[in-house]
Amino acid sequence: MRLSMDEIVNAVCLHLSERHEVPVESVEVELLFDEEQGFSAEVSVQGRSRFIIEANIKEAIARYMLTEYDQRVFPSQITLDVEDEIWADIA
Predict the structure, then answer these.
(1) Which Pfam families does the protein's record reference (predicted)?
(2) Structural domain count of the chain
């Protein structure tokens, strides 16, 4: 299964809104890729900005897969990749 960039952003938004107990509308996410640093995201939760690393993104995707698709997925089964945009392959 493959998740689009929009679904990854949704996964991170939903995950952070649950963790911080805030409305999902107050979470903003920008996915990033750097050849040296790998995948990350700049997130803003109620105006407070920070960066999350690839492991956090995979954790959000795993939770999203369980809640939205009723599939238990482990981070080791998730591969992030990029060409024109970022996507996730689920093994």
Answers:
(1) DUF2653
(2) 1
